[in-house]
Write a structure and sequence with these properties.
Elements: H1 2-24, H2 27-30, H3 36-50, E1 58-62, H4 70-77, E2 82-87, H5 90-103, E3 107-111, E4 144-149, H6 158-171, E5 172-182, E6 184-185, H7 187-194, E7 213-215, E8 225-228, H8 229-238, E9 242-247, E10 262-267, H9 279-285, H10 296-313
Parallel strand pairs: 1-2, 1-4, 2-3, 4-5, 6-8
Antiparallel strand pairs: 5-10, 7-8, 9-10
Helix pairs in contact: 1-5, 3-4, 9-10
The protein binds S-adenosylmethionine.
């Protein structure tokens, strides 16, 4: 017991050093500034309010930045857990690899080769990264129990949001949960914008229009993006995702909330593998599946493909 307390304490102390380094290097400013410990913790608090975080979980932090949420979640999932972080800013990924992976070897960070006009200043040089997050389905920890994206969809246009919802949906494991923070435009947040209590400067005139997506600045469109709540849910449904919880944050002027943004939990029903599933016939039926289902690895890939994709696409093996 004493040893466990000592180890938990030690992890926190080491995390503190990393938090100090991220501030000193200016990385915390790139991802929005504020107190990185409080911001990371408030995201954990809101997840605790909506779902269970347990040791051993496999977690994907999409748009991980400099690891403000990765650090506290690594404490929670423990050594038996796995954390994968993805971001488009090479310097931040390098920092996470050098600092966080060194302390938590059960973490890995990948640079995604993608553009975002709000972050263009920091994405000029690319590392040898991945080109699509689909590529993560090849790594052993895919089939994630928990995927989260904090303050990421608040910087994505509609085409990217759709694409990432589809891709992230396919990376979820059985009973996996996808947690996304967003700025939902609904009656309550419109009231906040109208009454000037909102912390995000949406135009009170434009917010009254029935749009799918709202940008808070004209010159830097992706600086702050809001989605009409129903439109976002529809987009998620297109990716096979159903909302199970929504938590409304403080941003429109609500008080006493756990976090600034709104947070939605999305889930995807993943079927059992049918007893008569025939991996060889399944692979033979489709040109885009080129694995050798006679091998153990090929069979496992075919089975994984069926429960994650094939089932939803109506694919067959007869
Ligand atoms: C406001 S920061 C939040 C970082 C982190 N989630 C946090 O809460 O500290 C937004 C992050 O999203 C990343 N991002 C933007 N567009 C992205 C994309 N297309 N794919 C992955 N990450 C992206 C940015 O590089 C940035 O690190």
């Amino acid at each position: 017991m004493l040893l466990a307390l000592f180890l938990i304490g030690k992890g926190k102390v080491n995390n503190k050093v990393i938090f100090e380094k991220m501030v000193a290097a200016g990385f915390n400013d790139i991802v929005g500034g504020g107190d990185p410990v409080d911001i990371g913790q408030s995201n954990i608090d809101v997840m605790d309010n909506m779902l269970e975080i347990v040791p051993g979980m496999k977690v994907l932090d999409f748009g991980c930045g400099c690891g403000r949420v990765a650090l506290p979640i690594l404490e929670r999932i423990g050594d038996a857990g796995r954390l994968v972080g993805v971001d488009i800013i090479p310097e931040l990924i390098q920092f996470c690899q050098d600092e966080i992976k060194a302390l938590h070897p059960n973490s890995d960070f990948y640079q995604l080769n993608a553009k975002n006009s709000h972050y263009k200043k920091w994405t000029k040089d690319q590392l040898a990264g991945i080109n699509q997050i689909d590529e993560l389905s090849e790594i052993p920890e895919s089939g994630f129990d928990l995927i989260f994206a904090f303050s990421v969809f608040t910087h994505l246009g509609i085409a990217d949001s759709k694409k990432y919802l589809e891709q992230l949906s396919k990376l979820l494991g059985r009973n996996g949960k996808l947690v996304i923070s967003a700025l939902f435009i609904n009656e309550s947040s419109r009231r906040g914008v109208r009454n000037n209590t909102a912390s995000v400067p949406f135009s009170p005139r434009k917010i009254e229009k029935r749009r799918d997506v709202y940008f808070c600045t004209v010159r830097d469109k992706l600086g702050g993006v809001g989605y009409r709540e129903e439109s976002f849910i529809e987009m998620a449904a297109g990716a096979g995702l159903e909302p199970s919880r929504i938590y409304y944050g403080e941003w429109p002027g609500r008080v006493g909330r756990l976090c600034g943004h709104d947070v939605i939990v999305l889930e995807r029903g993943i079927p059992d593998l049918p007893k008569d599933f025939d991996a060889k016939a399944y692979v033979a039926n489709y040109k885009d599946l080129d694995w050798d289902a006679a091998t153990e690895e090929g069979r496992a890939r075919a089975e994984r493909h069926y429960v994650r994709n094939g089932y939803f696409e109506g694919r067959r093996w007869d």
